[in-house]
Structure formats: structure tokens, C-alpha cells
Design a protein that fits this description.
With 252 residues, this protein is of the alpha/beta class. The protein has ten helices and seven strands.
């Protein structure tokens, strides 16, 4: 298996174009639940191309985008070149390089399942201010969608490593254990994208486990085209998600 830091190096263009952002109401809900405002300092861990940083930056929060992959980090730096409140950091979850007790919120979207959890928990405790918060988010494909169930089957049937790099290997018990002794909170929001055929294929290409070329890649693309043709309406399909948001507040 390739180094987890390098998995997305050749996926950046598709990631920027086809990966979902996060629900428009997410930040407001977090502000209500956790008492946040834009005086708080955010550490976005595994920030990638900055999709997860965007809602905070647009509401004038200061965000440290901590990302170990050079290509992903450089893409974020280019996208947010005009944002003085975005600080790009070459670091990882277990070694962020941030100062002790320097951030109010640790936010991580679509990345927690890559982390070395014991080392990451130690690092998070080090960089969080007293009374800070940890927020973990996944856009999880909606299992009630026949389209997405067929999409999922294509991945399972064709990609050997899909079953063990899939974020679904992280369940609530693992998150509770990571948050322990703090209590885990949870909220869920609907989210969606609409794709033409190229976008539907691009969404699959953006995933770390999808081959970049070759026989298996060609087979996946053919099967995705068949699925698209089955479900499309006026040349578009709906890619729906449940945005699952887990959080805790540090009391000690």
C-alpha cells in the first residue's frame, strides 16, 4: 500500500473539481452547539485542497490548514492566496508543528480514518487550548440512494483495497474511544451534488483508492457510464450525502 500522505498526489485536479464541500448550515450549527465565533482559532487537520477550511475562512475565522501532502497543500495555497486568515502548514495529525495550547477548535473532514490515533490523540491534547473542541466530519454517501448503492458495488467489486481504506472502517465506538473521557456529540445534515457524466466519473477518480489508469480503471469507467445512463435525468444525476458530524468539548 502506498504511503497515506502520498495517496492524493495525482488526484488534486479531480479533487478540486469534483469533491463535495460541506453543508451551508454546518458552521452555524457548530457555532450554536459549541459557542464558536470568528475570534476562535481553527486547526483544520488533513485540510487537503481547503474544501473543509472554506466555511471558516468565509466567516473570517483564522484557519491553520495542516496538510502533509505537498500537492494538496499547494493547491490550497493557490486557492486561498488572497485570504490573510489562512495559514498553510506542512504537518500531519500526529505532528502538526503548531504551538502548545494554540488553537480553539480542531476540525478534520474526511481525514480521521487515515490518522495514527494514539499519536494523534496526544498531539491534539497538546495543541488544544483548555475548553477547546474537536470536530470530525464525513460526507457519507446516502445508502438510501439506488444510484449510490450501485456506485458502491462498482467500487467493492473492482478495487481490492476499497474495503480496508474506506472511511466506514471508523465507527462510532472508535470515535467515542478517541474522544474519551469527553462525551461525544453528534449531528447530521443533508448535502448533495449534481453531476453530468464527466463529473460522475471525476467524482470516482478523486478517491484515493481508484486506479489512475489501466484495465481495472477502464472497467470502472465503463460500469459507471452504465449506471449514469440508468439513473440520469436530463443528463444529470444527484449524488446525495449525509454529512455526519461528531464533536466533543474538552473540559479538563
Amino acid at each position: 500500500m502506498e504511503n497515506n500522505y502520498d495517496r492524493f498526489s495525482q488526484k488534486v485536479q479531480d479533487y478540486v473539481k469534483f469533491r463535495p464541500d460541506y453543508p451551508s448550515g454546518m458552521l452555524r450549527r457548530l457555532e450554536e452547539e459549541l459557542g464558536l465565533d470568528n475570534r476562535k482559532i481553527i486547526a483544520d487537520i488533513g485540510s487537503g485542497t481547503g474544501l473543509s477550511s472554506k466555511p471558516f475562512l468565509e466567516h473570517q475565522y483564522t484557519v491553520y490548514g495542516v496538510e502533509p501532502n505537498d500537492e494538496m497543500r499547494k493547491a490550497a495555497e493557490a486557492i486561498y492566496r488572497g485570504y490573510e486568515n489562512f495559514i498553510s502548514v506542512n504537518g500531519a495529525s500526529e505532528n502538526t508543528t503548531l504551538e502548545d495550547s494554540s488553537v480553539d477548535v480542531i476540525f478534520s473532514a474526511q481525514a480521521f480514518h487515515w490518522f495514527d490515533l494514539p499519536k494523534t490523540k496526544t498531539e491534539f491534547k497538546r495543541i488544544l487550548k483548555p475548553g477547546g473542541h474537536i470536530v470530525l466530519v464525513w460526507n457519507e454517501r446516502d445508502s438510501s440512494s439506488p444510484l449510490l448503492n450501485d456506485y458502491e458495488k462498482v467500487l467493492y467489486d473492482n478495487i481490492r483495497e476499497y474495503s480496508y481504506v474506506n472511511h466506514k472502517n471508523i465507527d462510532e465506538e472508535k470515535i467515542k474511544a478517541f474522544f474519551s473521557p469527553e462525551k461525544m456529540g453528534y449531528m447530521e445534515l443533508d448535502h448533495r451534488q449534481w453531476f453530468d457524466l464527466e463529473g460522475f466519473k471525476g467524482r470516482a477518480r478523486s478517491s484515493s483508492y481508484t486506479p489512475k489508469s489501466g484495465v481495472i480503471y477502464d472497467k470502472i469507467m465503463r460500469e459507471l457510464k452504465e449506471i449514469f445512463n440508468t439513473y440520469q435525468t436530463s443528463g444529470v444525476v444527484e449524488f446525495s450525502y449525509k454529512a455526519k458530524i461528531y464533536y466533543c468539548s474538552i473540559t479538563g
